[in-house]
Design a protein that fits this description.
Shape: globular
Helix content: 40-55%
Order of helices and strands: HEEEEEHEHHHEEEHHHHHEEHEE
Number of helices: 11
Strand order of the largest sheet: 5-4-6-3-1-13
Distance between the termini: 13 Å
Structural class: alpha+beta
Largest sheet: 6 strands, mixed
Radius of gyration: 21 Å
Length: about 400
């Protein structure tokens, strides 16, 4: 995004603030290469920040008002709130994420010294499963920290963003999205142990292959409710397994250990949810090793296995995601494909040879329209830096 243009759009909305210096901030979206729906089960995940993201042009205010405008939700117009009155309203629009972050910062003891005006603009497709909400949460945390002089590192910002989503928005998400967005590095993915938040960066050398993001354009109406339902099922499975093992999280079990104790999970849905979490955790470890060995064929096969597990055991894919993944796997130059994100729509990713990208996009686009009845969108992901303040030119 052209930063001077962003500043110009800010002044068009906040006409009385032209004398103030505009500060610019950015928080990316994220893709998760592998390790889906296990960040709340104590597993390893392997996400990366991407170069699509959410931008903000900001000026501080003299009063305690927070005044917001998003060009992505222009029909909502300018939204105002007071930092002294952050109660959630019925049918709160996108500003619910902003108010949630402010609320949890204040609950954590960070005193807001002033309000601010913010013009928000993002190029993450909304509802696509690339974490536009977590991007906004981390972005607001960064803005609050900068304007108020809070000494907050990326991990703390991520934790507060997750708390806002859990406690204020009401989505019982894990930490992965906010962590990847706050802590991302260019050309590197993050091996994150969600059990204790230990992490390491890994070079993401895909050689002649690229990550193709495929947006099904199926809006994820079920995603939040089913997300909470799946998490509750995992917690129920964990409670039963704790009667056989000293466990704090499902992903502390190996596949072999799970096979020995899984008979306590007499309900099929609990068995399948736990099976996905535990086998997916193993796939993450194998995938990271495959990348380190420069074995992209093995890496791609693990992407395929991940999707099948999400389809059959976790049951969070749906017709659109299954269709686009199936079509992609049939194309020459594709080593693997899987859904990413919460599921029930949103995006899939595929590992595609750079020379075949255009052919794959064309073939999958044609087949998807024929089977689903509407178009998909395609993006080639570059792995970029995490959230940061931008230099004003």
């Amino acid at each position: 995004m052209e930063l001077n243009e962003l500043k110009s759009r800010f002044f068009n909305v906040f006409k009385t603030e032209t004398s103030k210096e505009v500060q610019l901030f950015f928080a990316p979206g994220r893709i998760n290469l592998i390790g889906e729906h296990i960040d709340y089960n104590g597993g390893f995940v392997f996400p990366a920040a991407i170069t699509f993201g959410t931008y903000a042009a900001v000026t501080p205010r003299e009063d305690s008002k927070v005044v917001l405008y998003s060009e992505n939700f222009a029909k909502e117009g300018v939204i105002e709130c007071e930092v002294t009155d952050l109660a959630r309203k019925t049918d709160e629009p996108w500003s619910v994420y902003v108010k949630g972050v402010i609320a949890v910062f204040m609950e954590a003891g960070y005193e807001m010294k002033q309000g601010f005006n913010a013009y928000i603009a993002g190029n993450i497709p909304s509802g696509a499963g690339l974490s536009s909400s977590a991007s906004l949460e981390v972005l607001i945390g960064l803005i609050l920290s900068d304007l108020n002089g809070f000494e907050i590192d990326g991990i703390t910002n991520a934790k507060l963003g997750q708390k806002a989503e859990n406690d204020y928005v009401g989505v019982n998400c894990g930490i992965m999205d906010q962590f990847a967005i706050a802590m991302g590095k260019k050309d590197q993915a993050i091996k994150l142990n969600t059990n204790d938040l230990s992490y390491a960066y890994a070079d993401c050398d895909l050689q002649d292959y690229r990550i193709l993001i495929m947006n099904t354009n199926k809006q994820r109406e079920l995603a939040d409710s089913k997300y909470n339902e799946r998490r509750a099922e995992c917690e129920a499975a964990l409670a039963l397994l704790q009667g056989t093992s000293n466990l704090n999280a499902l992903c502390e079990l190996t596949v072999a250990e799970f096979d020995r104790v899984s008979e306590v999970l007499v309900k099929e849905n609990l068995y399948k949810r736990a099976k996905h979490a535990i086998t997916e955790n193993e796939r993450v470890k194998l995938a990271i090793q495959a990348l380190a060995n420069r074995d992209l064929v093995a890496f791609g096969d693990l992407l395929d296995q991940s999707h099948l597990s999400l389809r059959d055991d976790y049951e969070v894919t749906g017709a659109e995601l299954d269709t686009i993944v199936m079509l992609t796997r049939q194309q020459e130059g594709v080593l693997g494909a899987r859904m990413t994100g919460a599921g029930f729509g949103g995006c899939a990713i595929a590992l595609v040879h750079q020379d075949q990208l255009e052919a794959v996009k064309a073939a999958v686009a044609k087949g998807y329209v024929e089977k689903v009845g509407y178009e998909a969108d395609f993006y080639v992901a570059a792995i970029g830096d995490g959230a940061k303040k931008l230099e004003v030119v």
